TrEMBL record:
Gene: LOC100179969
One GO CC annotation: cytoplasm
Top-rank taxon, per record: Eukaryota
Protein name: Myosin light chain kinase, smooth muscle-like
Pfam families: Pkinase
Protein family (similarity comment): Belongs to the protein kinase superfamily.
Organism: Ciona intestinalis
Keyword set, alphabetical order: ATP-binding, Kinase, Nucleotide-binding, Serine/threonine-protein kinase, Transferase
Length: 337
């Protein structure tokens, strides 16, 4: 069954090479803020010649190692041409910052929309979303790229009119993957990272599949399966793979959905189903079933979204403080290279 919702892409896939930062202001006019992420802000911008609108992700960046990270992000985005994956349009490297000009997605964050009063979340709709995520990640994995940061805030609705159609954004943590050379990382978002990330063990395609399992759990219940009192407790819940469906919010959720999640939240990376297997799973194959409203999940999701926003704002302040400290250090001639 192909659930792909056709999406109008603003422009065809482009191979982007970064340009000098000075050209940015000559080309685009900055309009409104759209959001903020780990490293910086995202703005609505307009091409001065054509009037076309884009999202500009601007990040302070002075160290050569940070620039290398952005070069990798650009290289990865250049290799990804899929309607469910955000497309890169242009890139500018200034003296102190990097700006990525991205396809504009106007529907906002999926979980924000679901937490709206008027939204009628059903399992059938959840199936539609998870199918789209699996299709996008399947394409990435087919190109030997791991996303490594699948989480609610990186899933956007294409437009306010198309709330059933999503796109995956943010390839800042994405990595190329070669099966015989072990890839290990020490980053991610505690609630959504797999046990092998926490244990600093080799990663694989299953690492993204775990995060899809967590996103599915949250989507159907509004609850975060591994959330602890603090980050340390969250990480130990992840490594203990301590997950259950005991909460009343799961009363209206089908057994098929619970089996699907359980398969993804397997502590053994290699045992988790891949995207093709997920798309074949009976839960994802029955888009038209389970039309009952998941009202308990929506109530919980409001709290989930509010808490995540709070955590993100704290992280943004921390990132800013670290950045300022880094800038001061770089300004010190005794430490400059
Ligand atoms: P990021 O730094 O990529 O995680 O983005 C931070 C936030 O900015 C996201 O969670 C979105 O709310 C918003 N955002 C990022 N990219 C776009 C885009 N292409 N179009 C519209 N909003 C975006």
């Amino acid at each position: 069954m192909d659930s792909t919702v056709s999406v109008q892409q603003q422009f065809s896939h482009r191979m982007v090479k970064h340009k000098p930062g000075e050209l940015l202001e000559e080309t685009y006019t900055v309009k409104d803020p759209l959001g903020s992420g780990r490293f910086g802000k995202v703005w609505l911008v307009e091409d001065q010649k054509t009037g076309d609108k884009f999202a500009a992700k601007q990040c302070a960046c002075r160290r050569a190692s940070q620039r290398k990270e952005f070069e990798l992000e650009i290289e990865i985005m250049n290799s990804l041409d899929h309607p469910k994956l955000l497309q890169l349009y242009d890139a500018f490297f200034g003296k102190n910052d990097v700006t990525l000009i991205l396809e504009l997605v106007t529907g906002g964050e999926l979980f924000d929309r679901i937490a709206d009063e008027a939204f009628d979340l059903t399992e059938a709709l959840a199936v539609k979303y998870i199918r789209q995520i699996c299709e996008a990640v399947q394409y990435m994995h087919g190109n030997m790229i791991l996303h490594l940061d699948i989480k609610p805030e990186n899933i956007l609705c294409v437009s306010p009119e198309r709330l059933d159609s999503i796109k995956i954004i943010d390839f800042g943590f994405a990595r190329k993957y070669t099966p015989n050379s072990p890839l290990k990382i020490m980053f991610g978002t505690p609630e959504f990272v797999a046990p092998e990330v926490v244990n600093f063990d080799p990663l694989g395609k299953g690492t993204d599949m775990w995060s899809i399992g967590v996103v599915t759990y949250v989507l159907l219940s509004g609850l975060s399966p591994f959330m602890g009192e603090d980050e340390q407790e969250t990480l130990s819940n992840v490594t203990a793979c301590d997950v259950d469906f005991d909460d009343d919010s799961f009363d209206d959720v089908s057994d098929d959905a619970k089996t699907f999640i359980t398969k993804l939240l397997d502590i053994r990376e290699s045992k988790r189903p891949n995207c093709a297997e997920c798309l074949e799973h009976s839960w994802l194959s029955k888009e038209d079933q389970h039309r009952k409203s998941l009202s308990a999940a929506v109530v919980n999701l409001k709290k989930f979204v509010a808490r995540r926003k709070w955590v993100r704002s704290i992280n943004a302040v921390r990132a800013m403080t670290r950045l300022q400290a880094g800038l001061k250090k770089n300004d010190d001639p005794s430490t400059s290279k």
